[in-house]
Each structure stands twice: as structure tokens, then as C-alpha cells.
């Protein structure tokens, strides 16, 4: 096909694309006073709404924090917006045929929310075809201002990775370590409630970092989403104050902590929580309530430990589950599997020999409060005991 004809057709195809599907005439662009502003991430503070124009599937995988999803292009025969754009560029098609795949929801949203202070921002994958269509929709809707993310979602991803590198180096991390069942996450949650800066890696990853660690009924975010969540969390912290974090392996389920962030965490001052085994059993049963509620799922996961612990030991653990001898099962699991695994991992990951041991008698409200006071005051002693 003649390239000039194709270029002329593409320019005309963008005009009034949200019009009725029955319209076949080539419409001339209406005069408009809309101010189209191309910006980079982070956005100007004047942006009131962030609209993701990509498909619902891509939006679920990852999106800019606070964005809403209004897919601009309907799927065609199961194909997404990228294939539509590619086919449009490659093949000569009737303009009205392409226009009928444009979702009218964006135009309706613009008209419904139009006001003097309404300053939406739109973005697609690369900031090209779909974003251009959105600008014409904004013009026809009579918007005063429309922000467009330059280079789209791809530019946002690049900025997230850049921010992760720079933000990771800005903070001093304080690391809470301790064997499984010592209530590290519970302690950090209480610290966060008291206003301390806490980076809850397990909450963001939807995983506790072990074979049995996947949050019940949850799925882990994809890697792009995980990195965005980490970036957003760090961006909300004050670099002049320490960030408290639980000691983790670099891999949390199927996700990995970014190398620079992981290295900075490993360099942090460490506080090892020590709790009696009886209390650890109670904490474990509190943190994993689904064990008693869904024994079939628990047994299927425990079977996977045969590679590490042997078939005989795993069969014994399963017999404890089936007979509902929960305390004995948890005791066996902690002592025979979790403790040696955690100890090996911690010895490999920590980059400092400085570690303050904090003995907790239990996890009562008084003891937790006392422990938090000790930790945040950063005493110079090498061993603390709270009762």
C-alpha cells in the first residue's frame, strides 16, 4: 500500500472516533480549546484522575497507584489493543470499521465528571495510538485540560525501577530477625500502628517466605506489581527516620527482593527475637488459622517437604494432622524443618555480626509494648530481656 495514503488515512481515523458506529463519513475535527499536556511520572499535583486505557488483563497485572481502568479499545476476536494497533497499521481497513471498536466509556466519563477543576491524566502502553485517540475524545467532550503520560506505561515502569535503586540507598534499615513463630510480623504490625516506619515485605508479597507461607486464598502479585508496591512504600517513608523490616531471604515465594534493596536490608542493625517454644507454637497456630480449617490443603503442602525432610518424617507429620494433634505437629515442624532452614538462611544473608538479642516471655500486650520501647530507643546493650 502507498505509505502516503496510509499516513493520510491514519490521521483521519483519529477524528471523532467515539461517534456512532453507523457513521461512515469522514468527519472534520471540531475546533476545541482543550489543553493537551504531555507529562512524565511523577505527575503534577493538579492531576485529579488517573485513567489506565489498557485492557483489563494488563491493568490487573500492574497499574499506576490510584488509577482506574477504562479500556479504550474493545478486544476483537480475542485480540488485545496491541494487535488492533498493529493490524491497523499493517492493513488498509475502513475507518468506520476501526472506530466501532472504540469503547464509549471514556467519553461518558469525561462528560459526567467535567468541571472547572477536572484535570484527568490518561495513559496507554506506549503513549502513542491509544493516547492520541483519547486526546480527540477529550476535545470532543470539551475538556479544558487533559494530561497524557509521555511514552505511557513503559515510561512508568522505567521510573519505578530507577526509583527503587535510588530510594533503597536513602534509608537506614533496622531488621527484626528470629526463628519462625517468634511473632516478628505481629511485632512489626504493632510498631506500624504506633507510627514507626515499617516495610512489610510479607504483606506486599502475600507470602510468609516458606513452603507453607502463601497467604491462604491469595495469589502473589506479578513481578511488575511487586516492584511498584515496593517503590510506593519506600516513597512514602521519611529518609531521616529508620525503616523497620523483617529479616527475609531474597526470595519470598515466587518473588525476589530487588538486589540493591536486599543488600541494604542485610547491612542493617539486627534485633533477634527469642521466644519460648511453647509461645512459638501458639503464635504459629495464630498466624496459620487455615491449618485447622483446611487440612486437605495443609497435607498437600506438607507432602512437598519430602524432598527436604524425607518421606518417613513427612508421613508422621501427616498422621499428627489427621489426628488433630496440632501442638505436637507444630513443634515437630518448627524444630525439625523451620529452625535449621531459617538458621542457614540467616547466616548466609546477614552482612553484619552485630545482633541484639531480645528475649520475650510471651506476646502479651504489655510485653509487646515494652519490647517496642526497647527497640525504638536503640539501647547500647548487647542483650535485652523483657518480661
Automatic annotation (TrEMBL):
Pfam families: AAA_SelU (PF26341), Rhodanese (PF00581). GO terms for molecular function: tRNA 2-selenouridine synthase activity. Keywords: Selenium. GO terms for biological process: tRNA wobble uridine modification. Residues 50-165 form the Rhodanese domain. It comes from the Eukaryota. SMART domains: RHOD. The keyword Disulfide bond does not apply. PANTHER family: TRNA 2-SELENOURIDINE SYNTHASE. This is tRNA 2-selenouridine synthase.
Amino acid at each position: 500500500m502507498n505509505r502516503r495514503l496510509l499516513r493520510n488515512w491514519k490521521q483521519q481515523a483519529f477524528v471523532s472516533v467515539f461517534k456512532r458506529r453507523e457513521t461512515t463519513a469522514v468527519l472534520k475535527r471540531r475546533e476545541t480549546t482543550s489543553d493537551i499536556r504531555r507529562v512524565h511520572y511523577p505527575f503534577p499535583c493538579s492531576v485529579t484522575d488517573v485513567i489506565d486505557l489498557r485492557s483489563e488483563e494488563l491493568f490487573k497485572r500492574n497499574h499506576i497507584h490510584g488509577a482506574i481502568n477504562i479500556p479504550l479499545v474493545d478486544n476483537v476476536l480475542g485480540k488485545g489493543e496491541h494487535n488492533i494497533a498493529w493490524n491497523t497499521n499493517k492493513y488498509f481497513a475502513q475507518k468506520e470499521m476501526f472506530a466501532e471498536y472504540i469503547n464509549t466509556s471514556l467519553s461518558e466519563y469525561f462528560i459526567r465528571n467535567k468541571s472547572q477543576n477536572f484535570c484527568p491524566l490518561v495513559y496507554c502502553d506506549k503513549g502513542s495510538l491509544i493516547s492520541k485517540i483519547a486526546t480527540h475524545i477529550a476535545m470532543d467532550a470539551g475538556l479544558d485540560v487533559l494530561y497524557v503520560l509521555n511514552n505511557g506505561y513503559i515510561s512508568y515502569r522505567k521510573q519505578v525501577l530507577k526509583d527503587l535503586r535510588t530510594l533503597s540507598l536513602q534509608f537506614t534499615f533496622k531488621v527484626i530477625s528470629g526463628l519462625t513463630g517468634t511473632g516478628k510480623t505481629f511485632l512489626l504490625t504493632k510498631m506500624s500502628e504506633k507510627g514507626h516506619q515499617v516495610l512489610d515485605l510479607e504483606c506486599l508479597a502475600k507470602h510468609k517466605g516458606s513452603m507453607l507461607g502463601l497467604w491462604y486464598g491469595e495469589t502473589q502479585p506479578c513481578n511488575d506489581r511487586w516492584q511498584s508496591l515496593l517503590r510506593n512504600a519506600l516513597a512514602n517513608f521519611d529518609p531521616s527516620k529508620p525503616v523497620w523490616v523483617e529479616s527475609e531471604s531474597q526470595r519470598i515465594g515466587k518473588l525476589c527482593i530487588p538486589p540493591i534493596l536486599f543488600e541494604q536490608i542485610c547491612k542493617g542493625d539486627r534485633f533477634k527475637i527469642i521466644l519460648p517454644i511453647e509461645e512459638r507454637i501458639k503464635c504459629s497456630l495464630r498466624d496459620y488459622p487455615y491449618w485447622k480449617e483446611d487440612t486437605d490443603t495443609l497435607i498437600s503442602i506438607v507432602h512437598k517437604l519430602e524432598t527436604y525432610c524425607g518421606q518417613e518424617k513427612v508421613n508422621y507429620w501427616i498422621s499428627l494432622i489427621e489426628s488433630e494433634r496440632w501442638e505436637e505437629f507444630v513443634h515437630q515442624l518448627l524444630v525439625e524443618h523451620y529452625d535449621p532452614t531459617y538458621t542457614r538462611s540467616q547466616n548466609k544473608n546477614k552482612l553484619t555480626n552485630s545482633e541484639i538479642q531480645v528475649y520475650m516471655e510471651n506476646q502479651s500486650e504489655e510485653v509487646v509494648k515494652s519490647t517496642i520501647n526497647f527497640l525504638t530507643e536503640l539501647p547500647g546493650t548487647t542483650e535485652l530481656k523483657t518480661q
